[in-house]
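task queued by scheduler; priority normal; single chain, no ligands, no partner chains; default sampling; output format set to structure tokens
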Amino acid sequence: MELWDVYNADRELTGRTHTRGEPMQPGDYHLVVHVWVVNSRGEFFIDLRAPEKDWLPNVWETCGGSALVGDDSLTAALREFLEETGIALQPEAGECVISYRREGNPHNEYGGDFVDVWLFRQDIDPADFVPQPGETVQAKLATAEEIRRMMDDGTFPPYSYEKELFNIAGSAA
């Protein structure tokens, strides 16, 4: 069972928790992280979602997920990346570069979330990737241009912030 801290619309902790899979109450939010890793050549580390995933099976993506009770944003980013890839990121290599409130989380009919987009500048080798049963099956490096093409053909989900992120990363195609 996965528990999340509940935030109000001002991103203040309410002191309540929420069980994943249950509908959130209107006006409740939780914290979500997206973790992007760019190497010294401007390539991004991406992974392929497992075929048994309910949402976006067999689609390339960047790692991410919900913060658990007690997690701050960085802790959640480091944990999610390690869980999905088997690779530990260096905390000092990361920076939260984009943060926004999203109403009506697409995975939940109630509530919303706060999305923190992390960018880690770290050279990691896809050969070090460890598939995570039920989560991920493969990893590779891709340029911003390749990721945009994948977004266009539906093999990578679109992100509302991709242009801004690629500019920040210095990898604008």
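post-processing summary
- The first helix runs from residue 73 to 85.
- The chain has three helices and nine strands.
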